[in-house]
Amino acid sequence: MENDRNLKATAEELGVHPATMKHWVQKGIDGLQNQATKPSSTQEAEIKRLRKELNRLTEENEILIKAARMFAAQS
After folding, report:
1. How many helices (DSSP H) and strands (DSSP E) are in the chain?
2. Contact between 21 and 14 (Cβ < 8 Å)
3. Cα separations (Å) of 67 from 9, 13, 35, 64?
4. 2, 7, 18, 42: least CB-packed within 10 angstroms?
């Protein structure tokens, strides 16, 4: 994948069958795609923490809005 040589020539150089080489390359590509699309556990933990904080701040904001309405009605 990193050189200009074709799959067959690389397989011959390594002494493996071209079909085996093709299988290895495809597994490597699939692995890279999975890494790119699957968030890491630290990213998942950060997302979970941020969602929890967002929920808390949303609730606090709603309470403040209700309190402001209440004080405005008393004036």
Report:
1. 3, 0
2. yes
3. 74, 76, 47, 5
4. 2
